[in-house]
Amino acid sequence: MKPATNDVIFQTLGTISGQQIGVVTLNIEKALNALNLDMVQAMLAQLTQWQSDDNIAMVVLDGSGEKAFCAGGDVRALYQASIDTPGEVTEAAQTFFEQEYRLDYLLHTYDKPVLVWADGIVMGGGVGLMAGASHRVVTEHSRIAMPEVTIGLYPDVGGSYFLNTMPGKSGLFLGLTAYNMSGSDAYYVGLGNHYLNRDDKHALLEALSSIDWVASAESNHQKLDQLLEAMTGRCQIPMADSVLALHQQEIDALMAGSVAEIAARLADLSTDEKWLSRAVATFKAGSPISQALIYAQANLTEMSLAEAFQFELGLSVQCCAIGDFAEGVRALLIDKDRNPQWLFPHVERIEPSVLSQLLASPWDEQTHPLADLA
Question: Is 252 labeled as catalytic in the residue annotation?
Answer without folding.
Answer: no
